[in-house]
Design goal:
Elements (H helix, E strand, L loop, with lengths): L2 H5 L5 H7 L5 H18 L5 H7 L5 H26 L4
Amino acid sequence: MFGFLKRRRWRRFGEIAVSKGLASRKDIEEAIKTQKEYAENHKVQREIGAILTEKGILTPDDVKSILEEQQKNQDSLMAWFSAFFGLSR
């Protein structure tokens, strides 16, 4: 019923990094694996951006840029969703 949400879905950090050419899919897959292993061993979630920065794949400015785009996408989706359903914040 809400197939349109798939087209306008919030983009994940790794997808944005790959689309900007800042990381490869393999880089993201390895970072996710590292993230899962760390969570299992330490019971703490580490951010993908931090992992990729520690590995020298991203810079802090890259992470900031990706997070800004991610936030912009999320804000856009929320505005659209609110307008569609007549909601106000």
